[in-house]
Write a structure and sequence with these properties.
The protein is built from 30 helices and eight strands. With 716 residues, the protein is mainly alpha-helical. The strands form three sheets. It has a three-stranded antiparallel beta sheet with strand order 1-3-2. It has a three-stranded antiparallel beta sheet with strand order 5-4-6. Bound molecules: zinc ion (2 copies). It comes from Rhodotorula toruloides (strain NP11) (Yeast). This is F-box domain, cyclin-like domain containing protein.
């Protein structure tokens, strides 16, 4: 039979492609399975290990995984005996419960001494013997221990153990003592329950396994657009608990800040809600104002915004009042401020704990004994015996610390023989000498610091006893006061004493130096100001005779062109959110007393030879760029730069409620933002000048160009 057309038989079999996919899938599944068995932490399951898994299981798990094992986590061999007892007890209890023989049960129960003890006595024992690490191990031995130890009332047991271990507390934000122990000494990832032996992130208060670190820790400075609008980015950072431990090197503090992704997302959610509320409010407010202005405009009293009443479309004003970079409304602002304050306290606590952990780690490293035998090196022990027995030296056991424990010559090599000893003795004593010297100089520095602290009281007294407010303003900061020769004699010498009589004896000399400082500070300020206005190079002496400048009186210092910028870092006037302070010399000095009163002099100021050559250092300046901007500002405000004061500019801005100043050629985009507060612009300039000067390739910034956005002056 001829067919109508030739047909190709249709195949309903399995396509090869599918088979290949299936094979592939099986291969992957197998690989994942073996990987899972070996514990090489692939994906994070939702496995909850806390409490349910036995210590033995955990030991098994902890044998593998993780690039680096943190020192402190291995601490839990400390109270081995106690742990063994408890484990035995738990095991026996379990098997006894399973077994049926009555007599046997009774016998075992008697043997299980630790578990048989009443809670109070057990806690007493734990209270004086345990380290946080062994408490932690005990808490997962049995249900009873877990319940006993992790109840909130038991925080005191943990607290004492923690204090014994030399760690500071960290209770902010509802963090409990047992959680802290889990953080520092635990072995389990807080999010997925897998083994996590590396040093935890103390700042984020999380112990995380490798894969959880990779998925949950984010750099806060490079958040992309999935984290909401850009203008909220800084607010988001501020609202997030920040870590300075880099995930790759948890024992170092990095400059980059990291956050825990779920935290960041939670905060983003909150901010977006608040921001929307702010926007709604503002739009409503603006709509009302717009309607009013529109009406006024119709009545012929023109106001800048309402000048084109034809353009009344919604988009026109939304655009104008739309938010710019770093701008947000009162709700967001208040939330950020509140949140940052709270987090700052937490971060401070974490910082202290971090330092303590690193310190303990180091100490452990130093006392590390021979890894094979667990004993201190025989060579060192032998040398210690010889040194202590040496009648010609006075080294004590207390001298056998620090470098002595790590010095290669002392610790490495074979035991010194009696023949070798006389020859090696000088070298050994040299090591001890340097240990002692180092300790003595450290002690001296500590004593000096204590004396400096003691001087603060007399400094305050001296300042309060000044006759006029101006004299209290023109007064050195405590940090500078400490550098005076007359003051130095009270804290620097080994045998110096700070007391009433020493202070009284030095007082006249101090007053003299303060008076000298007053002349110098004015002269320095003058140099800064005239250096900008008179085109004189700043390193050139203006005139050796300071009296020649008598004409530059208080009135001169009050001028806008004489305003100076605070150069103490970090100088932030938190109220105005300004990176530094800008104002007249007296205002600046007042500012420094108020904000930087607790400033500590740097080590170089205190101890280098350069510090001793009498060259007072002042902590303010007037960069040429700022001086130029001031002149430009006067022009824009139509003020005479020869007579204008900062108050005149303030008045100008008060008179024109819409006036805003812009630094339109600022090197960074955020600094081009229009500002009502003109001082903010000056501070930005100073900040960028400094940044450019201290950049890897130091450079100058372009002369600042300012633009003023003001309503058109009245036509009358
Ligand atoms: Zn994990
Ligand atoms: Zn300041």
């Amino acid at each position: 039979m001829p067919s109508l057309r030739e047909t190709k038989p249709v195949s309903y079999g399995v396509p090869d492609q599918f088979l290949e996919l299936e094979r592939d899938y099986k291969r992957q599944a197998k690989a994942a399975k073996t990987k899972g068995k070996s514990g090489a932490g692939g994906q994070c399951g939702a496995q909850k290990a806390k409490g349910s898994s036995s210590a033995a299981e955990q030991d098994e798990k902890s044998g593998v995984d993780e690039d680096e094992v943190d020192q402190l986590a291995s601490d839990y061999d400390l109270d081995d005996e106690l742990l063994k007892l408890a484990e035995n007890g738990a095991r026996k209890k379990r098997s006894a419960a399973r077994g049926s023989g009555k007599g046997e049960k009774g016998e075992r129960a008697r043997k299980d001494r630790l578990s048989a003890l009443p809670d109070e006595i057990l806690l007493q024992i734990l209270n004086c013997t345990s380290s946080p690490a062994s408490l932690l191990s005990l808490s997962i031995v049995s249900r009873r221990f877990h319940k006993l130890l992790t109840s909130p009332e038991r925080d005191d047991v943990w607290e004492e153990a923690r204090a014994r271990a030399g760690l500071p507390g960290m209770t902010g934000g509802g963090f409990t003592e047992s959680q802290l122990a889990e953080l520092v000494y635990g072995t389990i990832c807080f999010t997925c329950g897998k083994t996590a032996l590396r040093m935890p992130d103390v700042f984020l208060r999380k112990r995380l396994c490798k894969s959880c670190r990779e998925t949950h820790i984010v750099r806060l400075d490079t958040l992309d657009d999935s984290f909401g609008p850009k203008r909220l980015r800084q607010a988001l950072r501020d609202c997030t608990l920040q870590s300075r431990q880099s995930p790759s090197q948890p024992k170092k503090l990095s400059k980059t800040h990291y956050g825990f992704l779920p935290h960041v997302q939670q905060e983003l959610g909150r901010l977006l809600v608040l921001d929307q509320k702010d926007i709604n409010d503002q739009e409503a407010e603006y709509a009302a104002a717009f309607a009013k202005q529109h009406q006024l405009a119709l009545q012929g009293r023109g106001i800048a915004v309402a000048r084109s009443p034809t353009d009344s479309s919604r988009s026109a004003y939304v655009f104008d009042f739309g938010r710019k970079e770093d701008e947000f409304g009162p709700r967001v602002k208040a939330y950020v401020a509140k949140r940052r304050e709270k987090l700052a306290a937490l971060e401070k606590e974490s910082g202290a704990l971090f330092e303590a952990i690193i310190r303990l780690d180091k100490e452990k490293e130093q006392h590390r004994s021979d890894p094979e035998t667990g004993q201190p090196p025989a060579r060192r022990e032998d040398l210690e015996r010889r040194v202590l027995a040496d009648a010609e030296t006075d080294f004590q056991k207390s001298d056998l610390v620090e470098t002595w424990l790590t010095d290669r010559f002392v610790n490495l090599g074979s035991v010194v023989t009696d023949e070798e000893w006389p020859e090696l003795r000088p070298r050994v004593l040299k090591v001890l000498d340097s240990v002692r010297k180092k300790r003595q100089s450290l002690e001296l520095k500590l004593q000096q610091a204590a004396r400096r602290d003691a001087l603060k009281r007399y400094y305050e007294q001296l300042r309060q006893n000044q006759l006029s407010p101006a004299a209290r303003t023109f007064f050195p900061l405590f940090a500078d006061f400490l550098l005076f020769d007359s003051t130095r004699t009270l804290w620097e010498p080994k045998d110096a004493v700070v007391d009433e009589s020493a202070y009284n004896a030095a007082r006249d000399a101090m007053e003299d130096e303060i008076n000298e400082w007053r002349v110098d500070v004015r002269f320095y300020a003058l140099q800064q100001i005239l250096g900008c206005t008179l085109d004189i190079p700043q390193d050139e002496e203006l005139s050796s005779d300071q009296d020649a400048y008598d004409a530059y009186d208080d009135g001169f210092f009050d001028l806008l062109t004489s305003a100076l910028v605070c150069s103490i870092k970090p100088c932030v006037c938190s109220a105005e959110k300004r990176p530094t302070f800008f104002g007249s010399l007296p205002d600046l000095l007042d500012h420094q007393h108020e904000i930087h009163g607790d400033l500590k002099p740097s080590m170089t100021e205190l101890y280098t030879k350069k510090a001793l050559t009498k060259q007072p250092k002042f902590r303010f300046s007037l960069p040429l760029e700022v001086a130029n901007a001031v002149v430009a500002l006067c022009e824009l405000c139509e003020l005479d730069e020869e007579t204008a004061t900062p108050g005149d500019v303030d008045e100008f801005f008060e008179d024109d409620e819409t006036a805003r100043l812009q630094w339109y050629n600022a090197p960074r985009e955020t600094h081009k933002k229009k500002e009502r507060d003109w001082r903010v612009i000056m501070c930005r300039i100073k900040r960028d000048v400094d940044e450019a000067a201290s950049a890897r390739t130091p450079h100058l910034i372009a002369p600042p160009a300012l633009r003023l956005f003001a309503s058109r002056p009245d036509s009358e």
